[in-house]
Amino acid sequence: MATSPSIVWLRDDLRIVDNPALTAAVERGGAVVVLFLLDEQSPGARPLGGASRWWLHGSLTALATELADRGAQLALRSGAAGTVIPALVDEIGAGAVYWNRRYGALREVDAALKQRLRADGLEVQSFGASLLFEPWTITTGAGDPYRVFTPFWRACLAADEPRAPLPAPASITGLAIDGTALDGTTLESWSLLPTRPDWAAGLREAWTPGEAGARARLEHFVENGLPLYHRRDEPGIEATSRLSPHLRFGELSPHQVWARLRGPLAPAAIANRPKFLSEIGWREFSYSILFHQPTIATENVRRDFDAFPWQAPDPAVLEAWQSGRTGIPLVDAGMRQLWHSGWMHNRVRMIVASLLTKNLLIDWRIGEEWFWDTLVDADEASNAASWQWVAGSGADAAPYFRVFNPVLQAERFDPDGTYRRRWVPELDSPAYPRPIVDLAASRTAALAAYEVVKAAKRG
Ligand SMILES: Cc1cc2nc3c(=O)[nH]c(=O)nc-3n(C[C@H](O)[C@H](O)[C@H](O)COP(=O)(O)OP(=O)(O)OC[C@H]3O[C@@H](n4cnc5c(N)ncnc54)[C@H](O)[C@@H]3O)c2cc1C
User: Fold this and answer.
1) Which residues of 4-87 form beta strands (DSSP E)?
2) Direct distance between the N- and C-terminal alpha carbons of the chain, in angstroms, rounded to an integer
3) Which one of 54, 99, 339, 364 is the catalytic residue?
4) What is the pLDDT of residues 195-208, one digit of tens each?
5) What's the total number of domains in the chain?
6) What is the CATH number of the domain that holds 233?
7) Is 136 assigned a catalytic role?
8) CA-to-CA distance for 274 and 96, rounded, in angstroms?
9) Rounded Cα–Cα distance for residues 397 and 364 (Å)
10) Same domain for 107 and 150
11) Are residues 286 and 386 in the same domain?
């Protein structure tokens, strides 16, 4: 009897290289339906922001081409997974469903679906594909999750070496069904691209979504950026990888990055390897926090911060921060880089977040949402964990009294002003606004506000 078809349900793993779920389906034999589901209905689903929607369109288009080259089509559906997937199973008579794991609130959707499909007699398997270390395997001696990054990463490095990446299947036996990305109609109907106005010109200029673009970016970084990575804090030079959106959408797995970093490298690159891998480690740490607290985008990790006296934002002040018109050049440069290209340099992210949460006393959740909408790498773990890290409410957070001074930071990390002038060309002209906040006085006010948290902790 012929093997029944399988479904590979792709989510944050839009690639064919090193995709364990896809490999399992091909090895099982029979036809394979590769499915992407736009699910904004399941409990815990957070609709993507504008920049991520733009990225998703490009990534699905690239994936459809990669699949077509190997004989398969990308099927697109929308709706709640718990409804759509069982319906698709019935439609094609599937005998197996495979996916790669996710780690936030949606894993409950996956668990319920797995149970239900197995009860119906299907073979269902999930795989580890987007983290080097499964969060439940890295625990303290007492079996608890780590709260501090350094011992977490030390434990990861002492664990088993991450597996080698899997090759892409040479060919996939496809099954034609309605709603394939190549005919374009379903993808267009999702309206992922902005039209009126089309604000995506800067994104198109900066990025090539899809796994070929991701691999090219990795190679470019290994040759040009990694030897300079000790200067990663300088936003005016290109010393970091800019792999974040590719990792976010799973166009590249961390296993591929790990394996490449173990491969041939120039001596200057070898010296910077541990630091770069530890940044990949921060991504793992963020996911570990998310795994243990799926509500990190909305709730303080440190509950004593629930007492923090955030101020209701003045709409004009918030608008000035969002649009890069605060009158503080490094902050404005960062916010404009974000708006134009969907990405911001890490150090500048910390500085703009510190200004919002400390000098302006605006709740970190408001900043997190703006980033969620505008970043191409907006990530359910790293965005929330990083905002909480800066605000002081997170796991292993920066001490609250660490209020970044954007003027001193600019002198230190952008000494010749390359970055500020690139994004704020009118810097020295009368058109440039005066600062919206007094940095010294607002720092003092922030420290006074923090006393409320300390008092709540004592009481
Ligand atoms: C307020 C704030 C919000 C952030 N939001 C996000 C987000 O939504 N998505 C996101 O991927 N990163 C986020 N970061 C972390 C970091 O700024 C970006 O990962 C990094 O700037 C991406 O650039 P890169 O790929 O050139 O980094 P590289 O320095 O080349 O690092 C390599 C990879 O490591 C990971 N990484 C690096 N630093 C961190 C970090 N601090 N935390 C978690 N992972 C890290 C990323 O996947 C990155 O691509 C945020 C940081 C701050 C301070």
Assistant:
1) 6-10, 32-38, 74-78
2) 70
3) 364
4) 888 999 999 999 99
5) 3
6) 1.25.40.80
7) no
8) 40
9) 13
10) no
11) no
